[in-house]
Amino acid sequence: MSIPHASYDPRRVFRFSLPKFEVGPKTRAIGTYLSGGLFALSYFLLFDAATLSSHATPPPDAPYDVVPVHMSFVDWVPAICSTLGFLVTSLLDKSHLQSAFAQDAWGSEGPAAWRARVVLFLGVALMAGGLAGSLTVLILKYIIPDYTGYIYYGGANVAMNGGIMISAMVLWISQSGSDEYEYQLTV
Amino acid sequence: MAAGLKTVILLAFVLALGFLLVILSCALWANWLPLLVALTFVLAPLPNSICSRCARADDISPEYNSAYVDFGRFLTGMLVTTGLSLPLLLAHSQLIQPAACWMSIAGGGLVYGTILVYSGWFGGGGEDEF
Question: How many CB atoms lie within 10 A of CB B1?
């Protein structure tokens, strides 16, 4: 009785290698446009909720009520986390990561690869933390107190953070092809 | 040359129509918030042109840096989406009328499309990509 022998190099840090996508220049351009559009769209979802909240009026059948809940700074904290994570993962140099996750174990040594791995971890953790934080805000602030008609604020927050994450994924995939396609020598 | 002339005149008319729609969407309800849409769509082709210049500026060096081009595309995507979703946001919060929202989207789209077609037609063989 023994567990089957692992077929991977034990000197590697992670069991799974970094997924490698080969995309052409056209896909790269379209993916970059798409990622920018998704980024702006997610931000506009949050702006929409914030504008709606700041112009919210009590219902017409009870005009002297106060609006029970408004968006405050707490709603923006997950967005800030997600945006920081997006920036970190997008600004990361992919070639360091490729060497960090390469098949040969010798490439994974060195301070650059180590730092790239830590920075990637930080960025993804920030984005996941943003998503989790927006879910927390949705549940604690909008679902538990049993308001009617204000769940949209929390839902927009969750959708915004998910959209930032999808945008980062699209940007990652479209950037992971080689960037030498437009190599032009005009000297 | 007559075909080019006709195209220029047609494009000018379309551009004027687009601005007419945007300004009408503001002026009919005396609410000048949709003018932001026209501003966004006019600014939308700028990042790509600036960034393609930046990327070409250091073509002397052997390493072609595509980061500028990609950043410009990202900004373009952001600006176009902003121009499309800003009127929807304003209409959703009832800051502008729904009709003003659709008019400003159509007008901004016409303006942006005119800039695209003009630069594609007369841009000097696809030097600048928008």
Answer: 5
| pLDDT for the residue A187 | 42
The model's pTM: 0.81
B76 within a domain of the structure (yes/no): yes
Could you tell me the residue range of the domain that residue B104 belongs to? 2-56+64-122
Report chain B residues whose CB lies below 8 A from the CB of A55.
Answer: 93-95
- Establish how many alpha carbons lie within 13 A of residue A6's alpha carbon, considering only the half-sphere containing its beta carbon: 8
B85 touching chain A per CB within 8 A: yes
Q: Give A19's DSSP letter.
A: P
B77:A184 CB<8 A: no
How much is the pLDDT for A181? 46
Residue B130 belongs to some domain of the structure: no
Q: How many domains does chain B have?
A: 1
> Quick one: pLDDT band at residue A47, thresholds 50, 70, 90?
very high
